[in-house]
Amino acid sequence: MAIQDKITQFWVKATGKRINPDEFEWLIGPIGNTDIIKDKFIFELAEKENLEIQKNLPNSGLLEKMEQIGISDKDQFRLNKKVADFYENTSDYDFEVWSEWKGVFKPFGKLLYLIFSKRLQQLNLPLNSIDTAKGLKSEIIKLKSKETKETKWTIWYRIIKSTKDVIYSGIYTTCKNPNYEKPLLKVVFPLPNGNASVVMSKKVEEDGSLLLCSDGKRFGDNGFYFTLTNGKGKYWARFVKSMHEWIRVYEDEENVLRADHNLNFYGMRFLNLHYKMNKKTFANNM
After folding, report:
1. DSSP state of 253
2. For labeling, which of 17, 89, 97, 173 is most exposed (least CB within 10 Å)?
């Protein structure tokens, strides 16, 4: 294991808290290997849980239904139909993305890339819009029960076409946090001996857009978490209260589906990501 991974894991143990996985089931998720993440964990997870892999089939979504994240009937009626279709049929879309690192944080992005992201092939946040000018390769991967054919895990695997770097290899699921009345969206990014999880609350705005937030203030809130295990039943978790993010998915005035992804560190904006989602031609003809 690389020294930087050992330091990160020591930090989680030293500054986080020991958790009982039965009491904090909403924080537990798949973990990564110690050498490289990329798509390797997908095959390992499928083998471990005896699941079959389905890649990028038409009409495959991050969510099976929007109701999974606890959207009320009233909000379901107000939610823009294109936004709902995107989440339920994500594989039917192509993506364009633009990135904007803010001021002094851009060198931090480069450092993150050199120390962790490039080596692990995980969380390769684009450093500039030139990197993503050729777009993203996006795959929705479903891990399903061989018996019931029900989806156990949904992975959104995205690669920057120009560099072949993995921007995100994340598992999209939901969790029932006892501090919240309704389910929350949870995105799990496997890392060596653990994972990073973003637990997000949701709000359907008056214009029909969907706002996802991880802006909690304390352990147990929605937010950004590192979880670590020793593989022998012991778990640690660290709530990173300095990291907040917001994702707004909406239809603009020209009827184009877009998403704004904003990330803050200690209250300061350090990265903006903007996405344009285009329905694939084959999907329009189905």
Report:
1. T
2. 17
Q: Which residues is 174 bridged to in the sheet?
A: 185
pLDDT band at 2 (very low <50, low <70, confident <90, very high): low
| φ, ψ at 90 (rounded to 5°) | -60, -35
DSSP, collapsed to helix, strand or coil, labels residue 131 as coil
Q: Determine the Cα–Cα distance for residues 179 and 196; give it in Å rounded to an integer.
A: 20
Does 280 fall in a domain? no
Does some domain include residue 286? no
Which pairs count as long-range contacts for 125-131, CB under 8 Å and 24+ apart, including other chains?
A: 125/99, 125/167, 125/271, 125/273, 126/97, 126/99, 126/160, 126/167, 126/273, 127/99, 127/101, 128/99, 128/101, 129/98, 129/99, 129/100, 130/162, 131/99, 131/160, 131/162, 131/163
Distance CA 121, CA 190 (A): 11
Tens of pLDDT, residue by residue over 260-272, are 999 999 999 988 9
Q: Is residue 210 part of a domain?
A: yes
Q: Is residue 162 scored above 50 in pLDDT?
A: yes
Flag whether pLDDT at 38 surpasses 90: no
DSSP characters over 1-61: --HHHHHHHHHHHHHSEEE-TTTTGGG----B-SS--TTHHHHHHHHHTTEEEEES-TT--
Q: Which domain holds residue 265?
A: 3-274
Rounded Cα–Cα distance for residues 44 and 277 (Å) = 31
Residue type, 184: L
Strands 194-204 and 235-239, bridge-based pairing: unpaired
At 229-242, the pLDDT tens digits run 998 899 999 999 99
